[in-house]
Design goal:
This protein has 153 residues and is mostly helical. The protein contains 4 helices and no strands. It has one domain.
Length: 153
């Protein structure tokens, strides 16, 4: 991907592709931070910290999703401009160069989809932790009840 971005940077010198590089890198960093939080959360015995960490993981995944989506849209606009230039200037190599240029767009869309799935998975995991906590409280309350229904203090 980085090689494709640099190749396009040579043919499109406005700095737009540098923005795609920066946004893609930010997306990667946010995704890695979310993954590290996810790994640390799995081993966390404290349920309230676990729930907070899953929500934090969802936030970082959402940041990654937003960055990937922005990069995909910028990439699409840049490659569309280049496509129009090539369509009217060089019809022989159009298919080959378009194939290379749209690989970056497909990669960005794919990373957006994966980051979106990470957001959903993190939120689902946080809700499961919350449900587990509520179930635990109900079980403890049932054990604390006496035979006539009063709660033992």
């Amino acid at each position: 991907l980085w090689a494709a971005i640099h190749d396009l940077s040579a043919s499109y010198p406005t700095g737009t592709l540098t923005a795609v590089e920066v946004v893609s890198f930010c997306s990667l960093v946010w995704a890695m931070v979310g993954a590290l939080i996810s790994i640390a959360t799995r081993r966390q015995p404290n349920q309230s910290l676990k729930k907070r960490n899953w929500r934090l993981c969802a936030v970082f995944s959402l940041l990654s999703f937003a960055c990937s989506l922005v990069a995909a849209l910028v990439w699409l606009s840049v490659t569309t401009d280049l496509w129009y230039e090539e369509l009217f200037s060089n019809l022989e190599t159009q298919g080959v160069t378009l194939n290379i240029k749209y690989h970056g767009f497909v990669f960005q869309v794919g990373s957006s989809v994966l980051a979106g799935l990470a957001v959903l998975l993190s939120l689902f995991s946080a809700s499961r932790v919350e449900q587990r906590n509520l179930s635990q409280v109900e079980v403890e309350m049932d054990h604390a009840r006496s035979k006539d229904g009063d709660i033992i203090v």
